[in-house]
Protein: Cation-transporting P-type ATPase C-terminal domain-containing protein
Amino acid sequence: MCLFYMSIYAAIYLPVDLFFYYYEQKLKVGCWLQVKEGQTEDVVEVDGHDNPFLCCGSEVVDGSARMLVTAVGKNRWTQKIHLQGEMINQSQLLISVIRKFGHAMAFVILLVKLAHLFSGKISDGQGKRIIIGGGEPIPIVDVLKALVGIVATPAMVAATSAPEGLLLAVKITFVYSMKRMLNDDNVVLRRPSLCDAIGSVTTICTNMTGSLIDYDEVKEFCLGLRSVEQITTNLAAPAVIELLHQGIGLNAGLFQSPQNPIEKVISDWASQKTGMSIESLNRNCTILEIKPFSSMDRQSAVLIRKNGDNKIHAHHKGAPEVIIPSCSHYYEADGTVKLINQDALLSLDQILEGMSKNGLRCIAFAHKTTSTRDCFPGRQLILLGLVGLKNSLRDGVEDVVKDCQRAGVNIKIITGNNIQTARAMAMKCGVVGANEQPGEVVQRLEFRQYIQEERMEKVVNICVMAEASPQDKLLMVQCLKQKGHVVAVIGCGIGDVQALREADVGLCLGTKGADIAWACSDIVIQEKNLASVISILSWGRGIFEGVQIYTQFLLITSFVALVTDFVMAISTGETPNIGAVALLSAGKVPYPVLQIMWVKLMMDTLTALAVIMKQPAEELMNRPPRGRNGPLMTNIMLGNIMVQALYQIAILLTIHLKGKSIFNVDPNANGTFILNTYVLCQIFTIFNVEKNVFQDIRKKKLFWGIIGIIIILQVLMVEVLDRFADTARLDWGRWGTSFALAAVSWPISWIVTCISELEAAIFSSSNWPKSEYGVK
Structure:
C-alpha cells in the first residue's frame, strides 16, 4: 500500500512540485513590483523571494514581473468608489438653504393665518365672520373648512419652495457636455464626477517623453571617446560590434511594451546602420536573467550566454549619469579596453553636454563578463558607447502651451532627462522663456534637498524638474495640492502611475502599451493628441459656467416667488382657499395647479436646457481658473441676484396692491397679470444671466427655440387655457405693460454688471489683498 501511494505521488504531485520549483527559479531574479492593494493607499512590495503573492484587485505602481494565476474566487478584493463632484455638493447646499427659507416662510404664514382666525379676520364663503372662542357657536364643519384653507397656503409655499431643478441641471450638464466632448475629441472619461475639477485646473504636470516630444532617429553615436557618423566593420572591431548588438537587441526590456519609442528608434538604427539581426541574436544567444527598467535605478540589465560558450555577459543600458559612474573602463573602436581616468571623464562630460545642448536624449550602453548568473554587476563595467536620439516637438505642442498660459494654467515638465536636455526642450516649446529666471529649472537632488518650508515656497516657480523619479513626480504633485492648486497630470507610462493617482485629474495619452497608466487615469485621450487637453479644459469650464448661469436664474426666480407669495398670503384676511373642502368634494382643485406646474416646468426644465446645452464659449479660455476653493457664487452674481430680485418683487407687489389704481387692471384679472409679468420677467432674467445672447445666433438654435416655446406656452396659458389654468384673458395693453415692466430688468442688469466689473478692476489694480488666482 505504501508503494502504491508513493507511486501516486510520483506520478501526480512530483511534476507539479517540479513545475512550481522551475518557475520559482525562473522568476526569482528581476521580478519586483510595487502595488496598492484593495482600497488602501499604502504601497506594498511584491518580489520573488519574501512576498511572491499578488492579490486580485491590486494596482501596480512600479516594476514588472511574470505572474502565474493559481486561483480566483469570491473573496477577491473589489473596489467600489463613490465620488461626488464639488459642484453637486454646492448645489445641494443651496437647495437646502432655499428649502429651509421656504419652510420658515410657510411657518410664519401659518402663524399669521391662525392669528387671523382667532382674531375674527377670517370669514366663510357667505361673508360671515368666524371667531374662535367667542360669539355664536360655530359648526365644526366651518371650523374644519377654515383650518384646511389656512393650512393649504403655507403647504403650497413649502412644497414649491425648493429649486429641485438645480440638481437636475447639474446632472444634465454633466451628461450633455461629457457626451459631446467624448464624441468630438475621442476621449474616454472614466470618472464623470470630475467635471467640475477639470474646469478648475490651475497646474498641469507632464512628462516629456510620450507627451511633448517624439523620437525620430539616432542623431549621434559615440564609440569610446569619439563621435562617429556610421559604424562599419572597417571602423570598429567585430567584437565591439557584436557586444553592441547584444546590448541593443537583447537588452530591450522583455517586460516593456513593444511600442516603446526609444527602443524602436535604437533598434531600427542598429539594424540599418550596423547590420544587427534580432533573429540571429535570439538564435545564437540565451537570455538567463533580466532586470527590467526601473524608474528608480533608471537602467535595465540582462544576463546572456552565447550558445557553445560558458561565459556569462552582463549588459546594462540606461541614463549616462547612472551608467558612466559604474564604469571603470571603456572600449576603443579597435576593441582595446582603456581606463576611465580624469581626462576621459572630462571628455565624456563634454560629449554629454554637447548632446544635451542640442536637445538629444542620451542612452549609455555598458558590458561586463561575469561568472555568476544570479548577480548583476553594478561596478567595474566597460562602457560600450553613447547614443544620442533626436527628439522633436509633437504637432501643436507650442500652441497648447500658449493656450494654457493664456488661460492661466501653469505647465510644469517633470522628466527623467538630464537638466541640459530638459532646459533646451522646455525653451523650445515655450514652458521656459528666453530669459530664464533662477529656480525655474531644477534637478531632482536640488528639489529633494529643500526643507519642507523652502520646497513649498519654491514649488510654484519651478517650470522644469530634470532627472526626476516617480517619487519626485509624486512629491511635486503633493506640494502643489498643499499650496491649493488643482493639479492635472499627463502621463503614459508606468513611471507616471503614482502621480496620476495623486493628481486631481489624471490624463493618459494613448491606450496601447500603457494599460497600467490607463487604469490609474481619470481621462484617456486615445489618439495622443495633446490639443485635446485644451478642449477638455474648455468643456470643464463650460460646464461650470452653465451651472453658474442656471443657479443665478433659479435663485432669482425662487426668491421672488417666495417673497411675493409670502406678502400676498399675509396681506389679506380673506383666505382664497377657505372653501377648499367644498371645492374638493365638487371635483374642483382649490389652487391653480396648472399655473404652478407651468412655472416649475419653465424654471426647472426648459430654462435648464436653454442655458446649459451649448458649446463652451471661446472667451472662457481667456479667464484665469477658479482654483480649488472657488465658490459657485461670485460677487457679481450675488449683486445681480439681489438687484433683480428686489426689482421683480417691487413690481409684482405693486401690481398686487395697486394694480387697479396704477395699471387699471380688473381685480378679476389681477392674478393673471401678476403671473404674466412674472413669467416675462424670467425670460429677461435668462437674457441677463446668459451673456451675449445675440452673438453667434446660428449656434444658439436650441436656446432661441426654447425661449420661443416658453412664450408660446405662456400665451396659450393665458388666452386659450383660461378655464383649465384659472387665468383671465388680457388685452394688448396689459400684455404690453407686462412686457415693458419685464424688459426694464435688462438695462438694470447691465448697469449692475458694469459697476461690479469696474469695482473688481479697481481692486485688482490697487494694493488690496489678492488670492493666488485673482481678487478675493
User: Anything to note?
Assistant: The chain has four domains: 2-64, 86-178+537-775, 187-211+394-528, 217-392. The mean pLDDT is 75.
